């Protein structure tokens, strides 16, 4: 039965990440020296797929996206191919540049800030996805709010993202969606139409709670677990067919279509272990997708995903910290889980 499974496809953003380490983020109008810098490839497509390839090199993995016909585009495609992913469905478009993200990693707070030029991601649309070529068990798409054309209005389905997920679902493929954090006023309006065409959603607390309008944290900075639970219930109400998942620094949460709520605290990671946090959310998503694909139970999906996120923190770029499923399970045994009040 396992050999008949067709793998995972991911469509969405590709950017070249310029990773800059700084001692601390400067105040307005002030200067912060860059201590070191390196180039890597990021975005939903490369991060999540290469993580999956590291977790299980036997997986069939397909990338669907667009880059510019430029040096960054060629660098991106080579990077993804070398990561063990099929790149036949990544197109190179003349007249647009490849996406670029400038990442500032504050080495004092371990926080990161992004400045992004969308490039080809902004013009990628439903027609650019060769849906007839899809041969997968799960189709994951991201990121909503970084793909202008897919985020745009669709008269029948609400948004082009919703149309894409609908069309993929019609082929009997399970669908999943990720987004990026944004304070745009139409966040809920743009995201809600896609939810009813998703089997799964995997997003962070800010993204999900931007839909519900409920604060994920209390005034003292502690997690408002009740609001997260209500938000997940709202995602199910809006039409997510199987599982809605939220991840944050302190925990992972899931609600199933039948109302089961699961919470798994994150692993307690010492600051000395953390070399970067770029791509931690994608690592968590990769862990979830792998768990869903392998038929793990709900509790184990969140446990494994949190261990994948922990592995990610051991490297400065988005994918180098990931390792095989067996090695991730061994890593998981090295740390206790956080205690949430």
Which structural traits does this protein have?
four-stranded mixed beta sheet, alpha/beta, 341 residues
Structure description:
The structure is a single chain. With 341 residues, the protein is an alpha/beta fold. The protein is built from 10 helices and 15 strands. It has helices at 44-55, 71-82, 148-151, 160-169, 187-195, 205-212, 225-237, 280-294, 298-312, 325-332, and strands spanning 8-12, 15-22, 34-42, 61-68, 86-93, 99-106, 111-117, 138-144, 153-154, 158-159, 174-179, 200-204, 243-247, 251-256, 261-265. The protein has a 9-stranded mixed sheet with strand order 5-4-1-8-11-12-13-14-15, with helices on both faces. Strands 3-2-6-7 form a 4-stranded mixed sheet. A hairpin with a 4-residue loop joins strand 6 and strand 7. The chain is globular and about 45 Å long. The protein starts with 7 loop residues before the first strand and ends in a 9-residue tail after the last helix.
Q: Estimate what percentage of residues fall within beta strands.
A: 25-35%
Spatial ordering of strands, largest sheet: 5-4-1-8-11-12-13-14-15
Average pLDDT reading: 95
Class by alpha and beta content:
alpha/beta
| C-alpha Rg (nearest Å) | 19 Å
Number of strands: 15
Low-pLDDT stretches are none
Query: What is the element string, with H for helices and E for strands?
Result: EEEHEHEEEEHEEHEHEHHEEEHHH
N-to-C CA distance: 42 Å
Principal-axes geometry comes out as globular
- Estimate the helix proportion, in percent: 25-40%
Number of helices: 10
- Describe the main β-sheet briefly: 9 strands, mixed
